[in-house]
Amino acid sequence: MSDEVIRKRLLIDGDGAGDDRRINVLLKSFVKWCHSAAPEEGFTQYQRMLGTLAQCEFSMGKTLLVYDMNLREMENYEKIYTDIEQSITAAHEKIAECKKEILRAKRIRKNRQEYDALAKVIQQHPDRHETLKQLEALDKELQQLSRIKENVEDKLELRKKQFHVLLSTIHELQQTLENDEKSENDESQDSPMENGQMSIVAFSLYGETEETQPVVNKQVELADNVLRLTEERYLPVPYRTPGGGHPPGPVEQPECCVWASEFPHFLLNRVL
Amino acid sequence: MSVFSQSFSPCGRFLAASNNYGEIAVFSLSSSLSPEATGINQKPILTFTAHEGPIFALLSTDAHLLSAGNGEISAWSWAELAKRNPKAVWIRRPQYKSSLEIPEINDMIVNCRDNSLAVGGGDNNIHIMDLETGVFKSVLQGHTDYIHCLSMREREGELLSGGEDGAVRIWDCRTGQSVHRLEVYKYEECARPQYGKWISCLTTDSDWMLCGGGPSLSLWHLRSLSPTSIFPLSGCQRQAMFYQDLILSVGEGHFLSHCLLGGDVKSLIPCSPPSLNTVALNTNSTEHRVLTVGGSSDQIDVFTNLSYKAFSLSF
């Protein structure tokens, strides 16, 4: 216990200068004053003691004020401390918020860049509308051309058939001539009956062999003419573009057809 | 010495790195990242010889570290490695056709869907092994030259492989058939004939794919199989990865490249090894989020902030 007291006293005023010494001096002077006899000296001593007491009181007052001040300072610091703590936590939250924000922004940026990269690739390909238009135009052209092709093919078929008719007629004529020759050479035999209208007509017409030969020659000449003329007229013209040249209109009634169907009559007319 | 590959532990506190001598070094990230770290903390806590030849691929599963070297795959338990006890849990070898020459394994990848491991290497084939039973289920054949790298397309369940023959093949994991084949060197904008046609780095995030090597590093859109951006990086890239909105890539040259998806190179961060082989990002831990790069030196650079190198670990 006495250690405590000594420690405290040393802490407060260890060096001997200051208030402690003043109080000790006051006590000593008080004791001396009590024991002193002379009144004047006693009075001065008394005054001196009062002065010292005043000084001590003053010092004590100062210390009390300092103590108060320290207490208030402490409070102030406590307040500032709590304020700073709050702002630290607020700043932490803001940082976390900003970090989330930055992650979001990075994701958005990544998406935008991916979009840009894809857009770059897509731009290299031609526009869809244009391609569709081109496709449509090509389709139309294709249809037109196929129509023309069909027309030409039909025409070709028709001509082929006509030529076929013509040639078969001529062939029959030749056969008839041969038959006539044969029947000329061999009067006992009947000339073989030909199928076909032409041969029957021919047979009925050309009873006399002497007269038939020049007529038959004329027939052959006529057939040749017909063939030549049809060739000139109906030989397939090299197809020109739809813009110019002979337009493939509706199929015209070819005269060859007429000729072929009226051939025997024509001959009849010429012969009779 | 060259560091060929790295892998972070599932807890995120350790880094395993392998080199060309067949050694694996385990570093403790928590001690090297702590404020009181000294030179000792930048050395590995454990170094051991795992294989006879160089180890080109390291992979971490939930509890094991898989290493591939000398044609075989060994598994080590992370818990044991943390306690400095290197003992292999299992060692398996795929069936190779020829028994004379043992082809090296260049890359491994885990298919989480059916818990299988795909390894690709020098015999031009990809072997699929079931992780639970250890049986090699199937072989994906198709490449005409050895396989450099593998990548997994999680969403569609497809495996991508890039090889020396310049082809990137996309395999369907269930049927084992090659779905697509991209010959990158045939595209004029990517090809760099002076370097060759081999593909050494491949990575994907389901919609997009990065591939590079002989041809320039390029970003491909997988749905349309068309290249969208070409990155003007000199040198051949050996590993690339997607990170947030950036593309990180390492290769020849002593820098780590940051590129944007549009094809611009944002920055080149210098590193200590003169040529880099591997880059790894620790996604398993939030307080040790670091990026590490390793290459043709015994220093492994650690980046705490992506923009600059913080310190180096020493193998």
TrEMBL record, chain A:
Coiled-coil region: 128-162
Origin: domain of life: Eukaryota
Keywords: Coiled coil, Nucleus
Location of this chain's protein in the cell: Nucleus
Keyword Oxidoreductase attributed: no
Alphabetical list of InterPro entries matching this protein: THOC7/Mft1
Gene Ontology cellular component terms for the protein in this record: THO complex part of transcription export complex
GO biological process, one term: mRNA export from nucleus
Stretches for region Disordered: 176-195
Protein family according to the UniProt entry: Belongs to the THOC7 family.
Function: Component of the THO subcomplex of the TREX complex which is thought to couple mRNA transcription, processing and nuclear export, and which specifically associates with spliced mRNA and not with unspliced pre-mRNA. Required for efficient export of polyadenylated RNA. Plays a key structural role in the oligomerization of the THO-DDX39B complex.
Name of the protein in question: THO complex subunit 7-like
